[in-house]
Structures are given as C-alpha cells and as structure tokens.
Amino acid sequence: MDASHAHHHPVFCTVVPPHLLDKIARSEDTRRADAAQRTLEQDALLRTRRRVTTVRGIAPTLGTPVSDEPRRTIYDAQHRTRLPGKKVRGEGDAAVKDATVNRAYAGLGATYELFLKGFGRHSIDDSGLALDASVHYGQDYDNAFWDGQQMVFGDGDGDLFLDFTVSVDVIGHELTHGVTQYTANLEYHGQSGALNESMSDVFGSLIKQYSLDQSAADADWLIGAGLLGPNVSGVALRSMKAPGTAYDDDELGKDPQPATMDGYVDTARDNGGVHINSGIPNHAFYLVATELGGKAWERAGQIWYDTLTGGRLASDAGFKDFARLSVAAAVARYGDGGAEHQALQKAWSTVGLG
After folding, report:
1. DSSP-assigned letter for residue 45
2. Cα–Cα distance, 78 to 89 (Å, whole number)
3. Active-site residue 174, yes or no?
4. Under the phi-then-psi rule, with left for phi > 0, alpha for psi from -120 to 50, and beta for the rest, what region is 230?
5. Which of the residues 174, 187, 197, 251 is marked catalytic?
6. 262-310 pLDDT tens trace
7. Is 113 marked active-site?
8. From residue 211, how far is each of 44, 73, 168, 184, 297 by CA, in Å?
C-alpha cells in the first residue's frame, strides 16, 4: 500500500439503508421478509469484512500520463456471493445480451465522464483507477454497494425492489463513496457519515442530470427512481427536493428523512442515522442548485467538489464545518459578491445551518 492511501479506511456503503430493510424483514409476507433478512445478514457479514481489510492503495506510475478513457470490467457473480465472478464485458467490448451488464457498463461510464468533464478528475482516485463491477450478486439481494474496491449490484427481489442497475444515480452514488474515500475520507457515523451519504446522493443526482443533459429545474432530484417495485407506494429511495416524501408504504414504512435541522434524528441505528440526516445537506444542495439555475454540476456541483477535495474538510467534519467550508470554496472560486455566495448563505440558513 502506498503511503498516500495508508490512512484510507473504506467503509461498506449500501444504497438501501438498514432501517428500511429492518422494516421489511418484519413483514407478514414471508417471501419479502426472507429476502430482506438475507440482505441484512449479507450486509452485516460484508460490513465486518470491511473493518478488517483496508483499501488496496493503487499507486500511479510516476511520470505516466493518466488516460482520459475509463477502464471498465463487468463481472457476473451468477447469484453467488464470491467476488468478482465471471468476466462478461471489458472496456471497449460490444454490448452483450444481458441488459443488466450493459446498464452497469454504461453507468460506470457516465460516472467516469461527469467526474472527468465536470471536475477534471481521472476516475475514483484521480489516478485512473480501473472501474470494476459485479452484477447478479446473491439471491434476491436487495442492495447495491461499493466495497472499497469495486461496485456490486443485486437483482432485487423483483417485488419491492427491481434490478439495482436501473438507476444511473444509484451507480453514481456508490462510486462517489470511492471518491470520498480517496479525498476527505469522511468517517461513516453521525454527521460526518451523513455528509458521506449526502456526497454520494449529490454526485449521483448530478451524474443522472449530466447523462440526461438536464438543468436543475428539469431534474427530478430523486435518488433511485425506478428502483421500487410496481406495488410500492413511493417514487424513490430519497428526495433531495423534498426529503421525507420519497415513499410511504405499508411494507417500507414512511421516508424518515428531515429537510432541516429542526427534524434532525438522534439515533444509534444506521451508524447514527447516516441515511436519515443526509436529507439536510441534500436539501441544502438542491436549494443552491435551483437558486443558481442552469446545469447543477457547473456551479453548485463545482463548489461541493471543491469542498470535498480541497484538503480542509476533516474526516470527522460536521454539517456546520461543511457549510462553512462550502461558503469559503464559493468565495475562493467565484468571489464574495456573487450569486453563488448568496445562494449558499440562503440555503444553509434555510436548513438551519446558517
């Protein structure tokens, strides 16, 4: 492991939060309950494994220019849990018959492209890290995750959750955990953990907007739209525009995300509510992006990227630290008299972090 990555402790980050799976695991429908329980058990196992292994630092070869092209490899786990599985598509290979493989390949490409074209970043580690993903993981596995080295996608149970490659923002969300790991390395509990989750939602949403060429006004600001099964009362896993409104369902329960500090949830579960309180910085980003208008990755996204990668965001940073540093990043890039500075102050004030 090279010295520059020696302190990077990867966390095991899933897109479906444990509180949601816990609720389904208590379902009277045994098939639904069993699928959720199996997913929770697998996630617990993987979480433990992540604690005992640290990320393999990929040291760039000095003097070698980093390519502007991604290096993608998609594997088929064939419904087992051994990773990575059988290689089914490499960089530059033609599309295959399996739509899940092709969606994963395209999602990795869309993520790579936004970080390169939007922020000049070469892959997850900014040194051209190869992008590997495994699809068809486990049996009815209701999640997707970044394990510190690669992406993994379940097929869902086909009932409450569909194939986890259907939402490009979910792919972007998980890969952004890698970007965070290689930059601010935000600790995965409490407010720093909620910021870690929020970074993934922000850039996941931007990747979707970039790939659809949407303005901030056109975007739906949903995370995981298209992921919930047809019988679920809900539109997505989370809403950045209106946290707390993504779903309200007999099996999934009600979306618990607050939009402001007034609704901040103190809990020991979910690493201190990392998937719940992330609604607050998510909503602040939505407010900044829509206030500034145009393409959200161009100004709002640039400020968030500067804050995440600028070297001043501590690994245990809280919401107020991020708010303060984002304002400083906006002033550094755009000056203190501009719309950017005003939009940030207004947004952080609106969510109770002024």
Report:
1. H
2. 14
3. yes
4. alpha
5. 174
6. 999 999 999 999 999 999 999 999 999 999 999 999 999 999 999 999 9
7. no
8. 33, 20, 9, 26, 11
